[in-house]
Automatic annotation (TrEMBL):
Family: Belongs to the ABC transporter superfamily.
This protein's UniProt keywords: ATP-binding, Nucleotide-binding, Transport
PROSITE patterns according to UniProt: ABC_TRANSPORTER_1, ABC_TRANSPORTER_2
Protein name, UniProt field: Uncharacterized ABC transporter ATP-binding protein YbbA
Pfam family, one: ABC_tran
GO molecular function, one term: ATP binding
Native species: Siccibacter turicensis
Domain ABC transporter: 7-228
Stored InterPro entries: AAA+_ATPase, ABC_transporter-like_ATP-bd, ABC_transporter-like_CS, MacB-like_ATP-bd, P-loop_NTPase
Superkingdom per UniProt: Bacteria
Keyword Zinc assigned: no
Amino acid sequence: MPAENIVEVHHLKKSVGQGEHELSILTGVELVVKPAQTIALIGESGSGKSTLLAILAGLDDGTDGEVNLLGQPLHRMDEEARAQLRARQVGFVFQSFMLIPTLNALENVELPALLRGESSAESRAKAKAQLEALGLGKRLDHLPAQLSGGEQQRVALARAFNGQPAVLFADEPTGNLDRHTGDKIADLLFSMNRDYATTLILVTHDPQLAARCDRRLRLVDGTLVEEA
């Protein structure tokens, strides 16, 4: 049975350093995210948006508090258990694309499915269909260096959605792209949100992208403030 809430966060704190050198990044974050919502995390540079996103995805730990992802208590899970959860139900898209340079587009998209233990024939068919749906059917054999920035980000999107994740985390997904290409990638993100009912949680400095989300949450002094 799917979790009632995709994300539940209570009293989350994050600090780095010790003693007089300790720096508080998150001072008491509270958050509940419902299935299929689109959430924009916004705020000044250095406010902790990417840190919060990493903690929500189980890629980093808070100093204190509770973080539940898809009904699972990340704050009580070891890295192996978190990795299994991410492999089954979580997708990621990053500003820097994070494609493996020695693998072609099809192999990059296929890789997470292989890591989940799916057969090569099954995973390849899914990866090919996903790339074709994103207009990259003629780019299957191209290495990342042979693709434009927009094409690389589409490969990253195909990889993220290959397993139809329950939640997608995106950190500045259009930050390295020009406005026209960025708008196309944003269109793809929101169309996939609708088609797959995937919850989307993204960090962005782009007010136009943030305005397209159901909710806009601003990090101010280590806490979240919901904007109208």
